[in-house]
Amino acid sequence: MKTIAVAGTFDTKGEEFAYVKDLIESIGMKAYMIHTGVFEPAFRPDVSNQELAAAAGEKIEDVVARKDRAWAMEVLSKGMEKLLPVLYDEGKFDGIISFGGSGGTALVTPAMQALPIGVPKVMVSTMASGNTQQYVGTSDIVMMPSIVDVAGLNSISVKIFTNAVFAIAGMVSFENKKTVPEKPLIAATMFGVTTPCITHAREYLEKRGYEVLVFHATGIGGRSMEMLIRAGFIKGVLDLTTTEWCDELVGGVLNAGPHRSEAASLCKIPQVVSVGALDMVNFGPYDTVPEKFAGRNLYKHNPMVTLMRTTKEENEQIGEKLAEKLNMATEKTVLMLPLKGVSAIDVEGGAFYGPQEDQVLFNTLKSKVNTDVVEIEEMDCNINDPAFAEAAAEKLIEMMK
């Protein structure tokens, strides 16, 4: 029998979660109930809040006595994050669902993120229509808007709860019988302005027996790639689009955080790295560009995205940071430099054509990279030239062999 874990505050929302439990059981599945609330639950759970608190090194009695809601949520969330993967490994459940407002969502989603990719995870939340990055992270959590607050049973909430339960029931019930032949997995990074390069490299690699996962270098894409490398899925990295460093260092909206470009080096995974789209910083609509950047070279990529050309000074800073990350490698790393432009609009006549800015970037990298561990390859072409894509792919194949 398939089992769905249901996590939530059974003290304050007992009626709602009892309904969900009954609904799951009515379709022939088992409900595995995990109580994340501070006080006594409305019904007996399979996993108590005492167990969650203990997993976090605390006693639930102390949590109650302290009367600090924020601390209580922190303790229970930490315990949930530690205990949930253990329960999954023990075969206690096949997928997990939860319902909540901002507090309930923040309490349960870190634990969902700790589960392996592919385990069904559904979070019905009042926060689902906004920026969900903090809740989803680099995981595959499905967030579903609750429309109304999770507060009682009514004509709207019952319909939403039912749809959510049927959705996760489908996820855990059906197994895709079509299998994909196992091939060595390669991670590649792409942006709109480096698409021709990555598309050509991907096709080149696939013809030679590799499977290529392409990550959109929009911040979450870079973080997702780093996570999968650390998790051991990836055998080779074609990180040709490192543009997220522009946003991290200059102040754009698509940064991947300070640990971007580390995983392959730390895990000793063969990697070919380049400088794709390091000519641009990303912002939202044109009128959202910070006032301090008035007078800069701005380009309307589309109505929702405005690009800003990086300067010589910024390129020096970006080059130093990328070199710092590359120097973490101990083996099998190549840095490829396309001397005639780092993006589709960094070409002669293009909006961001900047040979002087690019030269500062290239010179900084060549002076800062430790060539004892990193091989530098220069090519007299634009990053999107097929010859560059093939050379990068072939370099990676050589290292992976």
Q: What count of domains describes the coordinates?
A: 2
Assign the CATH superfamily of the largest domain. Uncharacterised protein family UPF0261, NC domain
Helix and strand pattern: EHEHHHEHEHEHEHEHEHHEEEEHEHEH
Our Rg estimate from Cα atoms comes to 24 Å
Which structural class fits the helix and strand makeup? Answer: alpha/beta
Topology:
Layout: E1 3-8, H1 14-26, E2 30-35, H2 49-55, H3 60-66, H4 69-89, E3 95-100, H5 102-113, E4 121-125, H6 133-136, E5 142-145, H7 155-173, E6 185-190, H8 195-206, E7 211-216, H9 220-230, E8 236-239, H10 244-250, H11 263-266, E9 271-273, E10 280-283, E11 298-302, E12 305-309, H12 312-326, E13 333-338, H13 355-368, E14 374-379, H14 386-400
Parallel strand pairs: 1-2, 1-3, 3-4, 4-5, 6-7, 6-8, 8-9, 9-13, 13-14
Antiparallel strand pairs: 10-12, 11-12
Q: What can you see in these coordinates?
A:
By secondary structure, the protein is of the alpha/beta class. It folds into two domains: 3-173, Rossmann fold (3-Layer(aba) Sandwich), CATH 3.40.50; 185-400, Rossmann fold (3-Layer(aba) Sandwich), CATH 3.40.50.12030. It has 14 helices and 14 strands. It has helices at residues 14-26, 49-55, 60-66, 69-89, 102-113, 133-136, 155-173, 195-206, 220-230, 244-250, 263-266, 312-326, 355-368, 386-400, and strands spanning 3-8, 30-35, 95-100, 121-125, 142-145, 185-190, 211-216, 236-239, 271-273, 280-283, 298-302, 305-309, 333-338, 374-379. The strands form three sheets. It has a six-stranded parallel beta sheet, with helices on both faces. The protein has a five-stranded parallel beta sheet with strand order 2-1-3-4-5, with helices on both faces. Strands 10-12-11 form a three-stranded antiparallel beta sheet. Helix 8 (195-206) links the parallel strand 6 (185-190) and strand 7. The relative contact order is 0.09.
